């Protein structure tokens, strides 16, 4: 039988394959951090959603643990070129937090910010509909500190720089406000399927 596997060499477990210009990193999970990895104890970690919302909210580790948990099984894509197939994360869907704070009708964007100061901007539409999480675990184990533990943002349908590690909160806005990489020439949205790497792509 003639099986067409495409140009990736390895089929993606759950996803549609390799976006343009990406390569399969195999089992490797590179660490990409602009900061020194902070040692944040779960007891010291909090997540806040504020800005243009009816009711700002702050959740601590225990409160997030009591929220309904869900899973992402699929691929991640870093703008430097590597993609990783078949990752498994669990955590809490951002829909849960956004439903609680109730964004204003005028809200269009968010800035995600980390406990270290890293920021990334995202359209609100990319954070809803079961496509974004506060991830607490990977492959059934607590998220390692170098990968953003105790908790990171996970928005796997966009380039992975949007998935802020050591996530501290989301500021909900009625305009787009460039984050750390976006101020340095990277694309405002970062859709890997449209190869939105740099502003102007
Ligand atoms: N706080 C913080 N989050 C971050 C980054 C960072 O430097 N700091 N790098 C981003 C980039 S460019 C990528 S590819 C992923 C890397 O996540 P990983 O180190 O778990 O692979 O985290 C993203 N989130
Ligand atoms: Mo990246």
Number of helical regions: 2
Radius of gyration: 17 Å
Strand content: 25-35%
Content-based structural category: mainly beta
CATH architecture type: Alpha-Beta Complex
> What is the makeup of the main sheet?
6 strands, mixed
List segments where confidence is low: pLDDT < 50 over at least 5 consecutive residues: 1-9
CATH superfamily label: Oxidoreductase, molybdopterin-binding domain
Cα end-to-end separation = 40 Å
Quaternary structure type: single chain
Listing every helix as H and every strand as E from the N terminus to the C terminus, the arrangement reads EEEHEEHEEEEEE
Shape: globular
The CATH topology name reads Sulfite Oxidase, Chain A, domain 2
How is this structure best described in words?
Pfam families: Oxidored_molyb (PF00174). Strands 1, 4, 5, 8, 9 and 10 form a 6-stranded mixed beta sheet that branches. This protein has a single domain (44-194), classed as Oxidoreductase, molybdopterin-binding domain (Sulfite Oxidase, Chain A, domain 2, Alpha-Beta Complex). The protein is globular, with a radius of gyration of 17 Å. Strand 2 and strand 3 (57-60) form a beta hairpin. It is mainly beta. It has 2 helices and 11 strands, in the order E-E-E-H-E-E-H-E-E-E-E-E-E.
Helix-strand blueprint:
Layout: E1 23-24, E2 46-51, E3 57-60, H1 61-66, E4 70-77, E5 82-93, H2 94-101, E6 109-114, E7 119-123, E8 133-138, E9 141-142, E10 152-154, E11 167-173
Parallel strand pairs: 1-5, 2-11
Antiparallel strand pairs: 2-3, 4-5, 5-8, 6-7, 6-11, 8-9, 8-10
The structure holds the ligand Nc1nc2c(c(=O)[nH]1)N[C@H]1C(S)=C(S)[C@@H](COP(=O)(O)O)O[C@H]1N2 and molybdenum atom.
Region (Disordered): 1-21
InterPro entries: OxRdtase_Mopterin-bd_dom, OxRdtase_Mopterin-bd_sf
Protein name: Sulfite oxidase-like oxidoreductase
